[in-house]
Amino acid sequence: MPAPQMQAPSSGVTVRMYRQGHGDCFLLATRDDSGQPFYLLIDCGLKPGSEIKATIEEVIADIRDATGGHIHAVLVTHEHQDHTNMFIAKLGGETMFDDIEFGEVLLGWTANPEDTEAQQLRQMKLKALMQLLAARRRLAGLAAEGVKDVQKTLNLVDAMLGFEGADADFLAALGPADGSLFGAARSAAVVAGLSVAKSMDYVTGKVDKPRYFSPHEPPFSLKGVSGVNVYPLGPPRDDRLNEDVPDASDAAGQARMYERTAPGHGLTFGFEGGLDGLFLGADPGFLGEDAESHDPFAPGLKLVPGGSGWTGEIAAFFAHFAPPEGEQWRSVNVEWLAAAGWFADKINTELNNSSLVVAIELTNSRKVLLFPGDAQYGSWMSWANTPFQVPAQGQAPTRTVTVKDLLARTVFYKVGHHGSHNATLKGRADSDYANLDWMAQGALAQEFVAVIPANTDWAMTKNDPPWEHPLKAIQDALKVKTRGRLFKSDTDFDLATPDGAVKADWQKFIANVTATDLYFEYTVLDQ
Amino acid sequence: MVRRSPEFRRLRVYAIDPSLAARQETVGLNELTLMVPWESNPAIEGVLSAMQMLGPVGNYLEVVDYDPASGCYYGPVDLNETFILAQDGLNPSELNPQFHQQMVYAVAMTTIDQFERALGRSALWAPRQLPDASFEYVPRLRLYPHALREANAYYNPDKKAVLFGYFQVAADSTDIAPGTTVFTCLSHDVIAHEVTHALLDGLHRRFAESTNPDVLGLHEGFADIVAIFQHFSNPDVLKEQIGRTRGDLEQQNMLGQLAQQFGRATRRGAALRDALGYVDGKGNWQRYKPNPSYLRDADEPHERGAILVAAVFDGFLKMYKSRIVDLLRIASQGSGLLPAGELNADLVNRLADEAAKTSGHVLQMCIRALDYCPPVNVTFGDYLRAIITADTDLYPVDDHNYRTAMMQSFSLFGIRPRAVRNVSLEGLVLQAGNSDLGEAVPPGIVPDLDNEIDRKVAYDRMHENASKVHAWLARPESAKLLEAIGIVAGTDGKVPGTVSRKKGRPAFEVHSVRTALRRGNKTNLVPDFVIEITQRRTGYFEPQRQLAADQGKPTANVDRGDFTFRRGCTLVVNPRTREIRWVARTDKNICDDGELDTLRQFLLGSPISMQDAFHGPVAPGRVNNPFAAVHRD
Question: What is the Cα–Cα distance from B497 to B558, expressed in whole angstroms?
Fold first, then answer.
């Protein structure tokens, strides 16, 4: 095995943020108790087509070289394409990660197949996804027939299905609605064809058994590394999991946002609003359900042309007012399917709160690096609910660590969800919920660093409607708080001393920075 | 025996929605009988005969019950069927689609009737634009009671149709039995709200173009105002509430909360669009107390609309309180303190009557004001001026100080017109006409006094009159008049090259010439003409391009640019003297670069358009259906 190329710092942690595109990929290096480098990889993905300067091949090759082909721990925050798809990226027919070993895999409780609550969530999500795929099949069928009004909805659905890893092959295999009957096994096989599902299978298949974490469990350590404690803050175990934004009428909640939000939805995948059966009529065969099981009225009241009760009078009435053909301008055949775009968006955004959120503490200086994945409003709101009980270690007695304390010591912040509107909360140092102003208190304010993994140009121009990643108000707040120590993956880092900075302090900071087209690297010293 | 068709058809409906019948404390409030103007099917060869009322399809509405998500039709009800006629329509029932058809028809007709009474003319739907850009008359709004399988209902301006959705209540709901199917077409408020969108679209097509934060807010708020006050103007609905709140309508009362079942089923605690109050941290309902900062902080259409509703409701409470003060004195032997226990039933009846009368008046005031709004880029401030001026026209003497109440409430909620120097009744009335300006309409145009003429005839005459008025105003002699009402005629000053032109002169359009009624000085009703005039200019997001195009050579066929900037005015004209009585105009005229830039900044930086990462900005005039987007969340 070749020697690893990425140096572990003599003190603290080095973070390498890859500049692969609109997505997350972080390689961390620290020293284990025997002085050897220990590597932790957090997420590895990007939205297809959002490449910045580096190619996927270059990034994975760099990960291989940096670690010498052995990553001690791999942490996947949540099951979205832009956090997972590079794990199964291929080159010349070979999966590039095949020759990289994983020591252990770290995941949130929501990914645990043995967790009852997680099982329920997965069931709900599967059900919702199946509804959406049924709608997608119908929409594809209509689009193929040349029905114009469905194309926009179809595009929106496909963009959102992309987060689940639905690529062109998957969509071709899914096909249009053709009246065929699917068994449960065949449907399950369709869903398993999503690349995110494949990525997760691939990652977990690399180890005997992944480790799963719940919030506010005692902090865990990485194998053989006593210099680092990892505190799991999310995903929440309670109803907060369902809140991606505060209610529009919740004034206190809205005040916690950098920008007011539209009415939100939760991690219940659409069933809260009574959307069960929403798209059953789109393709009952695919869903394997009785087409009439969610009808609003008794079966005898349904009239179909030529069926029972279809009198001459009724036939004449509907032939005039709702003819199967002609007078298309007033027909409402496809309007009900437009909800699929909104539903797809809902399924997609709801998954962000299942992010495994970790605060990585350096044991000597107690400085903290915060990696929240794409955690949204409800997750942030849950963090401070319960303090951590840290068991006695050697000489140190049992102690209580509050989340406020952890954030106050945070000197490195991986900005949540590419800087989107609901994944960084606004507040003050004396607020009673976790927010940006809780971070880096006292002297630590002088070394606060934030990193935004985002390709804004791609997000704004290649998406319809555009995604404001990062939200301007959040980026502005970060600029102020970091005083220029802000990295954004689509923007080359300027090493020159920014206006208003003390030159000596800036020199001290950039001594710990490496900036290339492939990555930004920054070392948090444990001192 | 002379057979004469009846004036009204009595039809039973749910008073609010079916949920009241399912809750023990409100079961008595459940049902209502509406008096709907009598009509039968228009005769259509081989489809409908005038003996029937199938559909129902009448002169204004056609109910077509096609359910695409279930892949079926539901047979149309015949309201003229003997057994149905004999019992005031079908029995309210969630299980019977024919009752659903009856209810959407009855409530929608009631809303139309309110508009016709307030405006003194027949309601017309927005015409349909054909592929060749010409317009076609649309006689009937279409109502699809079961078009969507989702918690949504909306007016589709392209189809001239309202689509109602239905959905199943979630398995973990505690407010409504899980598995219940909620039909939006059975909610009085949802129907009134959506039909109001359609009526407003028929009146002011440009009110659907979001050119400032108020435009869509007015559409939403106004639709809620109609829904709420249509409710309140029925004393039967109010009695129970007044009994329970001891006459104090300021306390929590569900009548002010729209769309009960819809709201509870989607588990937002209170109703969907609870315009009047909120539940505080301790779980108590609180009415929104006037506060000018709400408006400043609100940027979403429903939110701004809710503030408009709250302001109007606040004005309503002031009027109601001043009307019942004598009743309370009588009932309390002059002490003003009502005895403990339940209120006397007679007192409840009288209070309910006063509340209903006041609501009816507020509703008429709010609808009438539509004739006094500028045709484009309307703001809440414009609407306030319109309310005050319209009411002045109808009731020259403000006996009950209604106008003062309304002005004060709007002001307390931070709504004030931009161009008004001081907020007083005198300051709020619109710019008055001036006989020096001469006649605004050619001789020979007569107002339609009879609102029962064929609506197609009224539609055709409106357009015919519009072209006559256009020809009249396009005469060089009218240039002075045009400039005085804010329409750029090109006689003084340079006109930017992006302003739309015709024959080398800045073009203007006369959209409609409608008739409205006001109270004359002998307290008789006299007609007015209401005339809308607009101008357009091509806007570019890039200021340099704008500058170049503005300075460039004007051509008739400038490209469409990035957005359209419009200005204009509404005139109220006396048909006898043919002189202008009132002018309601937009701020500044079509040449104003500052206003153009305000619109550009609004479109580019609107937080509404960018508030959600996945919902992007939409330029005015480029949106398929603003209402579907506003309603789905």
Answer: 9
